[in-house]
Design brief:
Blueprint (H helix, E strand, L loop, with lengths): L2 H9 L9 H17 L2 E11 L2 E10 L3 E4 L4 E15 L7 E14 L4 E12 L3 E2 L2 E2 L4 E12 L5 E11 L10 E11 L2
Antiparallel strand pairs: 1-2, 1-11, 2-4, 3-4, 4-5, 5-6, 6-9, 7-8, 9-10, 10-11
Length: 189
Amino acid sequence: MSANRQNRKTIIKPLCINPLWPLAVFNLLATVLLASTVQAKELSLIGGGYDNYRHIDLSYQTSALWQREFSSHTLDLSLEFSLGVVRAFSGIYNPELRHVGITPFVRWWFTQYTGAELGIGANIFSGVHLGDKVISTSFQFGDSIGLFHRLQGTAWLFGLRYTHYSNGGIKEPNPGQDYVQLRIGYVFH
């Protein structure tokens, strides 16, 4: 067996061996508990990429947990729960990793249908090797900023989002992952 193949086998580990797996279970339980107390606001498919990496995410965003009205604008806070896959198209390590995340989002509504969002959350990845990157920790912060627009008279929302995953310097190396993403969401009433 070649050294490269042997290396690859030792790097690929099942998701259940990850010591941070209990946080993923917590995320699932929190989603179930919040679903019974907070009405779901939006279900979205978010996908995109940058460089040689691609990302797709299914997210569930709650109704506003907090909201403040200003003269012609609204500021609100909601939680987004996500399940995603990141994929590398080249490199010696795993071609893909899965992740779960929870992110509080602050949204500034410019109009009744258009706004900007900012979120900083926590994510657990299924490993630390992706393509040519070693991300060092399964725990990754996810920072997102985006613009969105809800189509008037429909339940559809479209947006553009930039997301950066990083371990925040907890351990080196910390190359981070960047994604420019398109978003399509369905808003429940």
